[in-house]
Amino acid sequence: MLIIGEKLSIIAKRVREAMMKKDKGPIQEIATRQWKEGSGIIDANIGPAEDGGEDLMQWMVTTIQEVVPLPICLDTTNANAIEAGLKVHNNQWGRALINSTSNDPERFPILELGAKYNAQVIGLTVGKGGLPADAEERAGIAAEIMARAMEYGVPLEDIYLDPLVLQIATSQDHARHVIKAIKMFQEINDPPMKTVVGLSNISNGCPKTLRPILNKHYFVMLMDAGLTAAIADAHEMAEAVQEKKMIEDVLAGKKIDDAKKMAEITKTIDVIMGRTLYAHSYLEM
Amino acid sequence: MAFVAPKETYSGKVYQVNAGTGANALSFGGENVLPFNSFEGTVPNKPLIAYEIQDIPPADWPENVQKPYSSVSGDPVTWAKFCQDTLKAKAIALRLIGTHPDRENRSPEDAAKTVKDVLSAINVPLIILGSNNAEKDAPVLIAAAEASKDKNCIIGKAQEANYKTIAAAAMANNHKLIAMSELDINLSKQLNILITQMGFDKERLITDPMCSALGYGLEYTYSVMERIRLAALTQNDLTMQPPMLADVGMYVWKIKETQAPESEVPLWGNAEERGIAWEATTATALLMSGAELLIMRHPKAVEAVEKVIEELGG
Prior knowledge:
heterodimer, A: 285 residues, 8-stranded parallel beta barrel, 14% strand, B: TIM Barrel, globular
């Protein structure tokens, strides 16, 4: 499993301030930690970055790669910023990953950049309209993105399909639709398509103590579905790997000795699979 | 071979809740099937419709729904007695709208007195509602709950912002409690959990997922109610098994379609009939989605919905 270290996001206050002040310290510290904890790519999320996005992305790419020998996931809706980042990206540590194209015509130029700079591209399975209703709709959009990628000259093995993880607190049914979509994406092509998720969105809006629990269980369930990569916190995912066997045992219907853990795992799986209705206090019931 | 109708079996059951005391006490809920599917299980009670009255004259109600009460609505006690004795109301819902800070801002003591007076004049179950101002409802409903102690009333509405005080008051004075959340099934479940975690018996709760009128988001209320009921029945979700309230009248009689006179929109036809039909249709839809307790305003709309309930076999 490829972990794309997620901590360098403009949404985080500390990171945003460092970006604004061009203060390398916090950026390099966080990137280094994500690398040491097992990330294979570092996500640089600069948001929409309408003003000065090109400079900011170049600064992020060079700042991170100064200290971390990993490729960067260029995460912004600003295509010019992505191209600027690709120009300075150090390919000796691997190929850059672009986040993202989709089935929205406005996002097609991203594929051109992928072809031009020999970068890998995340294909988010949404269209111009609303959110996909289920796994089947996601797979349909995936097929369109794949056709578009071939048209633009991006090889299918360079595409990571992203089914779009939604918040379990408000869109519970999508948790299992996404798991199913990950399985379906692999069946669309031979060799199977690569897949990626923005993992922690599953627990967005949930109480703080619940977030790592949901993230880790979801990670294991997606891993079992064949997920290739996750934009996630490497530290949390290392913990998930340690708990993997326990979670898989419960998934397989086995009992584990630790009763408290058993209850936590059972309830969390039931919530993810939509067998019980989500509520912030579901673990207490 | 004779045709055998396919039947669903459900693992869960809606709690049966009773309200009122003595011979006129009533129960609702208690079924283990989807609404009106009595051929699949048991439906021990019919949905209950309560007539809405309020503590101040209904000057804000459209004329067509003020009219049936024009001779009685100046005083909540006369109004309540009229509903019970003349309209044969099975239950009455007293909305203490006059306590709202933007309205008459009546005090909790005034509200308590109204509750006492109304209770002494009627013998059918009483629902006591605040003005839906979360802050003011807390002291008002505490006073109301105390004034009606041991009368087995239904008190509401407890919301995320004020549930602790209102639930405590309902618990201390032996009442049932309405828990309201704003059209979000997950928050509805969460509120029921929080209230029961205070030690409030889940079998004394009524869930209000928030009503809406036909044409104004009814499909959202419908869908949330339907999913709550499915969670209760098919997933045996204990937190989602209280009966549900549809507070219909208040939402229906404030929209354009129940107010605009025929002279303004000739194509819409007679305004009075239109309003009655609108309230009856909204209420019927919510019965189908699982409501067991309804609060309504127009006597003719109530009559029409009672007929639906009768014909569908409760």
